[in-house]
Design goal:
With about 400 residues, the chain is an alpha+beta fold. It contains eleven helices and 23 strands. A hairpin with a 4-residue loop joins strand 14 and strand 15. The longest helix is centred in the middle third of the chain and has 22 residues.
Length: about 400
Amino acid sequence: MKRLLLLGAIFSVFQIVAQQVLPEKDLLWEVSSPNGKQKAYLFGTLHSNERNLFQLADSVYWALDKAPLVVLETDICALFDELDPRTTLPSTKIDQRGQAYTSELESTQTVYGSEDGMPQFLDAYLQVYALNAAKKVLALESIHEQYAMTDEYKLGERKLIDNAINDFTHEKLTELYLRGDIDGLERFMKANLSLQENLYEEVIVKRNLKMALELDSILKAKQVFFCAVGAGHLGGTQGIIQLLRSKGYRVRPMAWTISERDTEAEKRVKKANEYLFQDAKSGLVAKLPGKPVVESHPDGSQRIIYRELGQGNTYEINLMPLDSNTTEEELASIYIASPDGAPMLKRFLDDGSVVFEGLSDTYPEGLNYVQIQFSTQYFAVVKVYGGNKFMHSNRPKLFFERVWFDE
């Protein structure tokens, strides 16, 4: 049973600050070298975007704010170029005015949750914060190593018995995680993964050994860091905590307290919620929720892409040199594949520049909102698409206002 204490004994001259204390929640650990001079912070995550997972302790924000280096299982932002996380496309119709609408109220489900959760799942949120805050980021595994393991054991196709059992498994994992019971998580995962021969050994045990070895190397480099890995890797006799202890490190749990008001560290972490992308050659400027993946091509074009992996929304900009033989209207007709009944609009901005925008129906994205902007030498195709609620909100068009050419 979770023990919950409400402390009202923290006084200042002007206010009383209440703290919620969960003494049994063991998700954040301090790792110290044998002489106590080198410290790092180890945090257990759940790969989901459910909002209740984001009720982080003051100590998590403190450690995250303090550390100049953030270490993750893998480079999650590499998925921006690899994965559209939506498991279903939104239900969209076109009305008589050419506007998109839907009669469906269902949230789009994604690989990491649904539209009702946070934009990023927990691990991705931490990486996005680190990059926005200009911190260094290291990965313990490559995304290709994780793909190889997924393919070998068909983890993406794996169902324990049926959907009801899968739902129970997710609910149980979430329950154990919210309690901060890392040993319970380790036992539950071992019981389920052991249904397939060698799966627990490959997915948990061998990876724990590799990650602990990598963490040992980073600790020896004498740099303070915040490390986030799946909480199922922490507990048990073969977990990362015990492996670090066997290497001589002192590992102790840190207090899990949540203040009624945001601490200064929490304010700083939450403030790092935007990334300013600028391309000096073209003058393109874009304000994105986080650092995008940028592909540069030999013809001088670029693809800039940022995904909200939890909610399933994508912000994409294709930047290309202008061809003097092609008119602006011709370019617009090429890049805005308007479905029947949805007109393409031409607008003049206050500075006299022209933009084209409208709904576009392309594969594999489905319906997406597109705006085309022009500079003297380049044009940008700004494409936005996502979940059911996202596509039928004002958020796609608001993003258009956050992209411009600064010449």
